[in-house]
Fold this sequence. Notes:
Structural class: alpha/beta
Largest sheet: 3 strands, mixed
Strand content: 15-25%
Mean pLDDT: 90
Radius of gyration: 16 Å
Oligomer: single chain
Amino acid sequence: MIFAWPDxxxxxxxxxxxxxxxxxxxxxxxxxxxxxRVVAVFDGQGVTITEDTRPGGIQVFYSRSxxxxxxxxxRLVAKYAAIHSITVATADRAERQTAISFGGETISAExxxxxxxxxEAEGTREIRRRRSNE
Length: 134
């Protein structure tokens, strides 16, 4: 997503962590508003796969050095798609086909951006509506 969305790509050029943090912020807001469980997977640089989950936040995985985020996504879809509804958001066509072959669904980078914007707008409207009824 970071390289597919112009605003995140610009953030990445300034500071990679800033782009990741902004994407995680948007995905967390989506999870909060929609109730859909979200997992984000990033290419990492460590020697082991790491996971970062904060209370109320989304689950975030970082691949180990020499491993791609795609390989983690593929393992997660292969393991869980038979028992959970899983949608993989990616701009990579090959990765979309792999996710589908394991029983997952996919959404494009643009589709995810639009979905997040729609859900955030709906959430904002709902918050305003509730505040006006107080």
